[in-house]
Each structure stands twice: as structure tokens, then as C-alpha cells.
Amino acid sequence: MRKTLFGSVGTHELKYLDRAILARLRTLSPEYLATLPDVTEGLENRIAAAVRESVSFDEIIDRVCTKRYTKARIRRILLRAFLDLPDVQKPDKLRVLALDNIGREVLKGAALPVVTKAARADLAIEARCTDLYALGTKYPHPCGEEYTKEIYYRDN
Q1: How confident is the model at residue 38 (pLDDT cuts 50, 70, 90)?
Q2: Residue 147 β-bridge partners
Q3: Helix (H, G, I), strand (E, B) or coil at 9
Q4: Which PANTHER family does the entry mention (predicted)?
């Protein structure tokens, strides 16, 4: 067993998020799906039909997947829909989760602003995604850990 980012023993697996993903996907319209990156040529209708007919995340992927639409592409689209990330966004800051002395030196030359505390930055999307990620273990974690966890610093 290994420790997760949240400090508990266990691993994050998509199967623990299956019902949450299905619940979110079932609320989405084909019009919304059409706004996601990589959704072209009526793929939104194929996805919407598969969501209505499927009882698991993997089953949706299997129903939508073709030679033209790979499993990786479909998985990416579905997870973007689940996380409500319709746009491809370039980072405007660097978020530090852990570092050592070498990392400190590298960050001194960073072109983007460096953030070490979530409470000091506009990280609503990241916090929402972390809260959903926290559900991906056998024993889910509470919300808000994005704002309370300190960065991990290892002294070389």
C-alpha cells in the first residue's frame, strides 16, 4: 500500500468515481458536449446516447469508441465534461505541491508567478477538481483539503 497525496493509505481509482461521473454526465446536454475540445462531427450525440444507455464509465467509452474515436480521446472528453473543463487553458501561475533545494533554485528562474498557498490564489477550478479527486479512494476524503494542506518540503 502507498500513501496518497492526502496522507491516507490507498490508491485512487476511477472505479470509485463511477457513479459520480455517471451522475454528472447524465445531466449534460448534447449542446454542452459539443462545446468540449475534440468533440466534432456529431460526436456529442453519440456520447449522449451512450450515457443514456450505459451503467458504467467504461461501458460509455466502449459504446462511443471507434477506429476514428479512440478510447483515450473519449476518456479525455468524458473527464473534461465531468470536471467541467470546457476550455483548454494555459497556466497563469505555477502551483507548488512539493519541492527540495534543487526545486527552490529552479523556481527562482520561473517565468510565471509561483503560488505556495491555495488561499492566496484564484484556484477555484483546481480546488473543485481536487475535491472530486478526493472521492476516488475506497474511503473518500472531505472537501477543502486544497486550502489546508501545506506543501511538502524535503531538505536534501
Answers
A1: very high
A2: none
A3: strand
A4: TRNA(MET) CYTIDINE ACETATE LIGASE
Q: What is the DSSP letter of 137?
A: S
Cell of 90: 494555459
Phi, psi for residue 119 in degrees, rounded to 5: -65, -15
What is the distance between the alpha carbons of residues 117 and 95, in angstroms, rounded to a whole number? 8
Neighbours of 39 (CB within 10 A): 23
Which residue type sits at 94? Answer: L
| Gap between the Cα atoms of 128 and 83, Å rounded | 8
Q: Rounded to 5 degrees, what are φ and ψ at 94?
A: -105, 125
- 68: three-class secondary structure by DSSP: coil
Q: Minimal CA–CA distance to 131: which of 146, 150, 115, 116? A: 146
C-alpha cell recorded at residue 33: 458536449
In this structure, the dihedral spanned by the alpha carbons of residues 90, 93, 94 and 95, taken in order and rounded to 10 degrees, is -110
Residues in the chain: 156
